[in-house]
Amino acid sequence: MSPTPQERRAARHRLGTGSSAPAARRGPSGGRKKPITVDAIIGTAFGIVEREGYEALTMRRLATALETGPSSLYAHVVNKEDLDELLIGRLCTEIDLPKPDPGSWRQQIISVCTQLRDQYLRYPGISQAAFAAAPSNLDTLRVSEGMLAILLAGGVDPQTAAWAIDSLMLYVNAYSLEVSLVNRRLSRSDDTWVVSREELLDRFAALPDTFPHTKRHAEELTAGTAHDRFDFTLGLMIDGLPRQPRNP
């Protein structure tokens, strides 16, 4: 008897994502179509997200792109949440984790977060798949393990390091989602909801005197790129971590 999707998911958690055995196509066109595998499902899902955004990714839309029915997908993935887990796990395989160095731990943890951000930004809105999901498969756990090792090497105590990883991941996810939403609005013909810096400065200048600080510091409030603010916030979070004194 073939393993159930739940059994395959449990095996992935023990052994990594891997590829499933191909499912035979049925019907008169079955021999002309590529077999359905977990890798085929993941690759097709990424293509949909890259072209249409994460909101377009449904099991039915994915099945249509694979020229099959949704029931065929459920032979390989348990549900949409399982697919989300596979997608985030696959992105995590692209993250380069350095050997933890007490002398450069700060730059190392920023590098990991930046790599994760860049992976998410390749696929508009895909960071939504990481919200409310604890790392569970080996590909995702590899990144959290690497981040934990870096923070511990930097002298951060284990409990603080554990919660810091949660906070950093949440910020990276939220930042990536916001940038994706802005880019999607800019790509539309009606981009009136995206305000330029010049227009924002004009709006601030026209504010009544009951907003004295906003008017006076409009330049500072609107300064920098999105990535400048990303770097600033990561630095703020990391520099605020209490660290244990190093042994001489």
Describe this entry's structure for a reader.
- This protein is mainly alpha-helical and 248 residues long.
- The chain has 12 helices and no strands.
- It has helices at residues 5-15, 38-52, 59-65, 70-73, 80-92, 105-121, 138-153, 158-187, 197-205, 212-216, 218-221, 226-239.
- Helix 8 (158-187) packs antiparallel against helix 12.
- The longest helix has 30 residues, at 158-187.
- The chain is flat.
- Residues 23-30 have low confidence and may be disordered.
Short summary of the structure?
By secondary structure, the chain is mostly helical.
Main sheet summary: none
**What would the average pLDDT be, to the nearest integer?**
87
> Mind telling me the C-alpha Rg?
22 Å
Q: Which class best fits the helix and strand makeup? A: mainly alpha
Per DSSP, the total helix count is: 12
SSE string? HHHHHHHHHHHH
Strand content: under 5%
Tell me roughly what share of residues is in helical segments.
55-70%
**Uncertain residue segments:** 23-30
Shape: flat
How many beta-strand runs? 0
Distance between the termini: 61 Å
Oligomer: single chain
